[in-house]
């Protein structure tokens, strides 16, 4: 399957698998002009490898499971990092985030981490003739060196790096400012009530979770005790912007509505939608109709809400007759966490072992649950449903893969880590990458190879995530070597018994780091 662009919105597909693997010997081909597929990238937040029922999760997710039934389920696909900002950075730029400082979890008033001119996945899609949108959580900073001007034009942002339209939570649901930004502006802002944001000291007279916990509808457990908005205290202080404040309960519906508007827009062009849910990040405040519905506390309820969201997107595609030729990718930005700063019963109803699908660790961790995530690709037109792939795939590869299939070049001097694994993405190659790098807390790295060996280089990091989540980091002062095939929970350190492999892997990792 190989594409070349003929008209703005048409592909020339050469059928015959031979073309996938060999340029010199094209197999028997039938040339056919076809519409380029739309692409919907559903990027969820903190959904663990074991959180979806098709991956063994105990909260029923029938709509997401349908993607598996009709698509390809990956068992060895990875986010590049165990937290949000670096994962998103790498997926959108094709460059691992740890290559430069300052790409860790971004505060809510951070400057744009991806500056105009940098190669990005949405720019590739624009050049391939797509119209593009970013809807949902952003968390990659906004504005120039001075940070975002919440009361004026917020620029640069998504529109400057390849998106034609954006409707976003600027950072996270648990960080101020608690307002939506559409294109360059805060939605619904009254100019007479300007927004002030401060991450160091209190501004304005809204109460805080620290001083007035009796005002909260969900108590904080660690951090998250600054300004209270909608009965939830946040990270950071915020004054003003009263008319623009969001209601957490409405996130899911709002994003579905914006996605609908974008999809139904009249256009000659196919679309690429980066649809980034707030679920299942904290604060886990589902819409009233989902509250209590899972009987597994707020974390269960937001998983139900996430599944509903996916159902709505799929229904929309069906109603518009777009399902057949839309590539839907479902994945997560990092692994699971139970107590991530609010008292929401997650620990009473869930265990790390289950939400990580039996893998060790979780969000923030160098162990597998930190970055191995659910990854599903559905494309009825070209992917046979109900199959599983254990190809090694990294989210950083979406950029080169989509560039390649669209025959669009990209700046490989900047997007240094992305590799074309289009064949793996559509189930035509069962191997995928040779190896990938995982980024954990404090930018400590780990290295996984497709033969199942994993290296966690010795580092000074703590054994447990040092604030409340009770997650094992996998860090140790000594180098550790695991064989994920025989020891998927990373319990048996082979560093001493297999010194040659250890050495080889350390050399390989260093070569990637100095690239
Ligand atoms: C941590 C927050 C956590 C979450 C995380 C980012 C505290 C104590 N913890 O610093 O609640 O917001 O950052 O999550 O403040 S992520 O999925 O966006 O990376
Ligand atoms: Ca996340």
Model description:
Residues 37-404 form the Sulfatase N-terminal domain. Keywords: Hydrolase, Signal. With 515 residues, the chain is α/β, with parallel strands linked by helices. Helices cover 20% and strands 18% of the residues. It has helices at 18-21, 62-69, 84-93, 121-127, 251-264, 297-319, 346-349, 352-355, 398-405, 422-425, 499-513; strands spanning 2-5, 10-14, 31-35, 38-44, 72-74, 77-78, 131-137, 165-169, 181-182, 185-186, 196-198, 228-229, 232-233, 237-239, 271-276, 326-332, 375-378, 387-389, 393-394, 435-439, 445-449, 453-456, 480-483. α4 (121-127) packs parallel to α9 and α5 (251-264) packs parallel to α6. The longest helix has 23 residues, at 297-319. The model is unreliable at 1-32 (pLDDT under 50). The structure holds 2-acetamido-2-deoxy-6-O-sulfo-beta-D-galactopyranose and calcium ion. Residues 45-46, 83-84, 105, 139, 172, 174, 222-224, 235, 281-282, 334, 340-341, 467 line the site of 2-acetamido-2-deoxy-6-O-sulfo-beta-D-galactopyranose.
Write the layout of secondary structure elements.
Elements: E1 2-5, E2 10-14, H1 18-21, E3 31-35, E4 38-44, H2 62-69, E5 72-74, E6 77-78, H3 84-93, H4 121-127, E7 131-137, E8 165-169, E9 181-182, E10 185-186, E11 196-198, E12 228-229, E13 232-233, E14 237-239, H5 251-264, E15 271-276, H6 297-319, E16 326-332, H7 346-349, H8 352-355, E17 375-378, E18 387-389, E19 393-394, H9 398-405, H10 422-425, E20 435-439, E21 445-449, E22 453-456, E23 480-483, H11 499-513
Helix pairs in contact: 4-9, 5-6
The structure holds 2-acetamido-2-deoxy-6-O-sulfo-beta-D-galactopyranose and calcium ion.
Family: Belongs to the sulfatase family.
Keywords: Hydrolase, Signal
Pfam family, one: Sulfatase
């Amino acid at each position: 399957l190989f594409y070349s662009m003929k008209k703005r919105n048409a592909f020339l597909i050469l059928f015959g698998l031979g073309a996938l693997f060999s340029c010199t010997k094209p197999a028997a081909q039938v040339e056919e002009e076809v519409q380029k597929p739309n692409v919907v990238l559903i990027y969820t937040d903190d959904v663990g490898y074991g959180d979806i029922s098709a991956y063994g999760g105990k909260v029923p997710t029938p709509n997401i499971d349908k993607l598996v039934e009709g698509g390809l389920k990956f068992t060895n696909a990875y986010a590049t990092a165990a937290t949000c900002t670096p994962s998103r950075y790498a997926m959108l730029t094709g460059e691992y985030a740890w290559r430069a400082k300052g790409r860790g979890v971004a505060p809510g008033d951070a400057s744009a981490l991806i500056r105009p001119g940098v190669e990005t996945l949405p720019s590739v899609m624009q050049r391939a003739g797509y119209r593009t949108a970013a809807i949902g959580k952003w968390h990659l900073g906004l504005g120039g060196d001075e940070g975002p001007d919440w009361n004026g034009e917020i620029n640069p942002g998504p529109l400057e790096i390849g998106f034609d339209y954006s409707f976003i939570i600027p950072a996270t649901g648990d960080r101020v400012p608690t307002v939506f930004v559409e294109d360059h502006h805060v939605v619904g802002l009254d100019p007479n009530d300007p927004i002030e944001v401060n991450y160091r000291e209190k501004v304005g007279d809204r109460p805080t979770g620290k001083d007035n916990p009796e005002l909260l509808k969900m108590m904080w457990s660690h951090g998250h005790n600054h300004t209270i908005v909608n009965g939830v205290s946040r990270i950071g202080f915020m004054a003003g912007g009263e008319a623009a404040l969001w209601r957490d309960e409405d996130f899911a519906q709002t994003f579905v509505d914006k996605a609908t508007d974008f999809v139904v827009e009249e256009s000659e062009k196919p679309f690429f939608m980066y649809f980034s849910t707030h679920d299942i990040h904290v604060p886990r405040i589902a819409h009233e109709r989902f509250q209590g519905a899972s009987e597994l506390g707020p974390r269960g309820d937001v998983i139900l809400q996430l599944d509903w969201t996916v159902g709505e997107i799929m229904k929309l595609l069906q109603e518009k007759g777009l399902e057949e030729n839309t590539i839907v990718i479902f994945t997560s930005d990092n692994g699971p966490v139970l107590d991530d700063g609010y008292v929401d019963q997650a620990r009473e109803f869930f265990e790390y072992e289950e939400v990580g699908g039996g893998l060790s660790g979780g969000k923030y961790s160098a162990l597998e649950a930190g970055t191995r995530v659910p990854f599903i690709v559905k494309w009825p037109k070209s992917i046979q449903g109900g199959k599983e792939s254990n190809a090694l795939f990294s989210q950083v590869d979406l950029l080169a893969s989509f560039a390649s299939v669209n025959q669009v070049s990209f700046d490989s001097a900047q997007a240094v880590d992305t590799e074309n694994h289009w064949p793996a993405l559509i189930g035509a190659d069962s191997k995928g990458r040779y190896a990938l790098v995982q980024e954990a807390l404090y930018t400590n790295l780990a290295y996984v190879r497709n033969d199942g060996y994993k290296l966690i280089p010795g580092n000074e990091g703590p054994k447990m995530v040092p604030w409340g989540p009770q997650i094992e980091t996998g860090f140790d002062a000594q180098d550790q070597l695991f064989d994920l095939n025989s020891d998927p929970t990373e319990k048996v350190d082979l560093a001493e018994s297999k010194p040659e492999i250890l050495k080889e892997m350390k050399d390989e990792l260093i070569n990637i780091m100095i690239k």
